[in-house]
Design goal:
The chain is of the alpha+beta class. The protein has a domain of 119 residues: Aminopeptidase (3-Layer(aba) Sandwich). The strands form 2 sheets. A 7-stranded mixed sheet has the order 1-3-4-5-6-9-7, sandwiched between helices. It has a two-stranded antiparallel ribbon with strand order 2-8. The longest helix is centred in the middle third of the chain and has 16 residues. The two termini are 20 Å apart.
Amino acid sequence: MPASTIHPALHFRAATLADRDALVALVTSAYRGETSRQGWTTEADLLDGPRIAPEVLEHDLTRPRSRVIVAGTPEMPLLACAHVCDEGGAGYFGMFAVRPERQGGGIGDALLRECERIAREEWRLPRMRMTVIDLREELIAWYERRGYRRTGIKKPFPYGDERFGRPRRPDLRFEVLEKPL
């Protein structure tokens, strides 16, 4: 896959089932536990436990029009990852994670653009959507600076399904963000 123009050494590739355990560890480190507090994407005050279950990741890796993208360099082959797929005729972006100690340097921005490119150019989808915990104002603002808009559509958090973590608060829900491609 192509290199990033912002980070010339940053390359993208499609993940495989062999990457599963390393991806679960990366995603968890970016969002949960003390390690996640090194970066700004932490959900450690909102949720405990896993961020992605191995069986959910396996499904994302093997279904049609679904790709988990890995961003890395020759020195560090697994810096970041994200999932992009065709969900009902629109791109869906999720499972976005950058190593906490490398956040804030443009890697996530380059990976988001690569996922938008796949949805727009390879799958010819008209828009990209995502869901973000609506309490994450700083994260939502980051996406808004990249052209995403709040839709006002709220979705319930999957309380009771520990594949997505153990909530530390009773008021979690998702908001759908969307961007025309």
